[in-house]
Amino acid sequence: MSPFVNVLGAKRLELLQDLVPSAKDFGVVLNPRHPEGQKTADDVLAAARSLGRSVYVVTAASDREIDEAFAELAKRRVGAVLVATDPFFTTKRDQILALTMRYSLPAIYDTREYAVAGGLMSYGSSIPDAYRLMGVYVAKILKGAVPADLPVEQPTKFELVINLKTAKALGITVPLPLTGRADELLE
Fold it and tell me: How far apart are CA 66 and CA 84, in angstroms?
């Protein structure tokens, strides 16, 4: 199973632009210790160039660095923030969400759990669907398939979740086409 999580930076940036079209500059928060961090940065930078936008990348690998990263993005007055996929960031979700609200920074995340916890928007592969695919894969093996003969599976379902309460708190009106594309709207 390939979770397909670190190659969605361009799509997340596009969704941020759809939600906050006035944003000229975007921030990206990366963990420099994450092996896919540079790939995510390159993906987002290329997408930003194609959209005619600039991106400011900050790195964080500790609580203090997360605080400093968001303070720096606020100081630079970025219009919106993309928080990269990272298990460390998942463990610091409450801290990250509090900082986006403190600095009034619209942000997009990789999993719906961020949006459920109060984050503005998430886009990523469906974790329940990935577990279902894993179950199908295990069933094939238990029925005698040789694992080496099976193809690598990738997610087939992606979820866009928008927290309307957070959008309202940030003074953002979610465009109707974006609400129509959302898999879930939280109120």
Answer: 12
How many other CB atoms sit within 10 Å of the CB of residue 127?
15
CATH class held by domain 9-125+158-186: alpha beta
What's the predicted TM-score (pTM) here? 0.86
User: Which pairing describes strands 121-125 and 158-163: parallel, antiparallel, or unpaired?
Assistant: antiparallel
CA separation (Å) from 163 to 21, 45, 153? 18, 26, 30
Six token digits for residue 109: 């995340």
What CA–CA distance (Å, rounded) separates 156 from 143?
23
d(CA 90, CA 113): 9
Per-10-residue mean pLDDT of the chain, 187 residues long, equals 64 93 94 86 88 93 98 97 93 97 96 95 80 81 88 80 97 95 94
Q: What are phi and psi of 85, to 5 degrees?
A: -65, 125
Q: Where are the domains of the chain?
A: 9-125+158-186, 126-156
77: alpha, beta or left? (left if phi > 0; alpha if psi -120 to 50): left
> Which residues, at least 6 apart from 12, have a Cβ–Cβ distance to it below 8 Å?
44, 82, 108, 110, 123
Query: How far apart are alpha carbons 77 and 54 in whole angstroms?
Result: 12
